[in-house]
Amino acid sequence: MAISAPAPAPAPASAPVPVDATAFAAFGMQELTAQTFDSALEAAGEELAVVFFWGLDCFNCEIAKKAMLAQPEAIRALGLKWFHSNVYEHRDLSRRFMLHGVPTWFFFHRGRRLGRATGWHGLAQFEAAVAAARGKINAGHK
Length: 142
Fold this sequence. Notes:
The protein is α/β, with parallel strands linked by helices. The chain has one domain (25-138): Glutaredoxin, CATH 3.40.30.10. Helices cover 36% and strands 20% of the residues. The protein contains 6 helices and 5 strands. The protein has helices spanning 22-26, 37-43, 59-70, 72-76, 91-96, 123-138, and strands spanning 30-31, 48-54, 80-86, 104-109, 112-118. Strands 1-3-2-4-5 form a 5-stranded mixed sheet. A hairpin with a 2-residue loop joins strand 4 (104-109) and strand 5. The longest helix is centred in the C-terminal third of the chain and has 16 residues, at 123-138. The protein is globular.
């Protein structure tokens, strides 16, 4: 007589993976919601502000955060006022900015959008995006 193996137990419900907020803390990134977005960017005043749009379980977002943390002095040397927003939690912001992928960074000055960087393609490309945004400030937002 053959003995059958017991049926496998159902897989336990997976607990949500906690967000690694190390980069947010390291660069003083303020979290933004649809309700706080415009006022926070206005409060940045003359600083070049950048909003890091990211998503939960976004592999490329985690790569970007780790790359930034691997070179913190270079990131700080950019002289940015940092913000962040989870596009899956704040879907109204992802619709407002027509985001089709993350990570994405938008640059603002005095609340006005100056440009964006999509995906993490290394520090040099990010620095170029920052320089382009600063160039628009120097040109009077033209």
